[in-house]
Amino acid sequence: MLRYLPFLLVLALWIYAFIDCLNTPEEEVRGLPKVVWVIVILLFGEVLVGPVAWLVAGKNRAPRAAAGGGATRWVAPDDNPEFLKSLEKDREKDTDRKDGGEDG
Predict the structure, then answer these.
(1) 16: pLDDT confidence band, cut at 50, 70 and 90?
(2) Alpha-carbon gap, residue 39 to 10, rounded angstroms
């Protein structure tokens, strides 16, 4: 079983690079046209030249800009003011339902 592992890893990298290339927008592709990258990945996939070349040089890997023009940055939920406001609104809705539904 272990003797098939290198083949499976090469196949997995080949498939990943191929799908990643197909899903990448044309404006994020570097060096060659997208169609040429697909051909390179398919032709040189068995020897890992095509997939590794795509992962290293074929795609812009810089973080995407946010809609406002700034760089996107992950924020923890407890530091995100919009998330905290939504929790407060949910809490208010729940207390309104409980208060209105009881005959107290």
Answers:
(1) very high
(2) 17
